[in-house]
Design a protein that fits this description.
With 226 residues, this protein is of the alpha/beta class. It has 6 helices and 14 strands. The chain has one domain: Ribonuclease Z/Hydroxyacylglutathione hydrolase-like (Metallo-beta-lactamase, Chain A), CATH 3.60.15. β1 and β2 form a beta hairpin. The longest helix has 10 residues. The N and C termini lie close together (5 Å). 46% of the residues are buried.
Length: 226
């Protein structure tokens, strides 16, 4: 499974010939200034919640590619009114089957509103299950016992977890979350973009290693296979 990181919580994951983009916040991010937003190809755009640092480039990329936006009913409706022709509305606990596999929307403990102040429903995470692998994209969230339900339904290969603290979990809570969802390997996200969420890379890696977990911190623009 090929994963490319575009900063903050934005990842492009290629699954069986399909490209799935999560939470695109690229063009305003100074750390991602070398990324050409218009070169990104996405079949589906999954939005965990409505905050600008997760949705800023969604409309632009969707219109460039004819992408389908998958999100809460409120967010999907908002983008439909902005001229996005393909949307799929969901809510917590719901699951949809798409050409690359299934997507289940799961609990995230966080706030959510769109850039113009419109109510965006509740924040969410996603569990994606394909023929080959399954993974958990946590979105912006606090540590929550609801995470313990995920491995009762899915055998995850890895997770993508926020580690920047202040607005979300820090590394210590993320390690507990990794235990809750029963993964030994996770990709860090939602860090360094703003002073509030700056982290010490070596320190968090050491903390993860001491806990027996593999923490992957990707460079912006880097592609890896998991």
């Amino acid at each position: 499974m090929e994963i490319t990181y575009y900063g903050q919580s934005c990842f492009l994951i290629k699954i069986g010939g399909h490209s799935i983009l999560f939470d695109p916040f690229i063009s305003p991010n100074e750390l991602a200034k070398d990324i050409d937003v218009d070169s990104i190809k996405a079949d589906y755009i999954l939005l965990s919640h409505g905050h600008q640092d997760h949705v800023h480039d969604a409309e632009r990329i969707a219109k460039n590619n004819g992408s389908t936006i998958v999100s809460t009913f409120e967010i999907a409706t908002w983008y439909g009114e902005k001229g996005i022709e393909k949307t799929h509305p969901m809510n917590i606990g719901g699951k949809v089957t798409l050409p690359f596999g299934t997507v289940k929307m799961v609990t995230a403990v966080h706030s959510s509103s769109l850039p113009d102040g419109t109510y965006a429903g509740v924040a969410s995470g996603f569990v994606v299950e394909t023929e080959d692998k399954a993974f958990y994209f946590a979105g912006d969230t606090a540590l929550t016992y609801d995470m313990k339900l995920i491995p009762e339904q899915f055998d995850l290969d890895f997770a993508l977890l926020p580690i920047g603290d202040n607005f979300t979990m820090d590394i210590h809570d993320a390690l507990i979350a990794a235990d809750f969802v029963q993964v030994d390997k996770f990709v860090g996200m939602h860090y360094d973009t703003f002073p509030y969420i700056a982290i010490d890379h070596e320190e968090v890696k050491e903390v993860a290693q001491m806990a027996g977990k593999e923490l992957i911190l990707m460079e912006i623009g880097q592609t890896i296979n998991l």
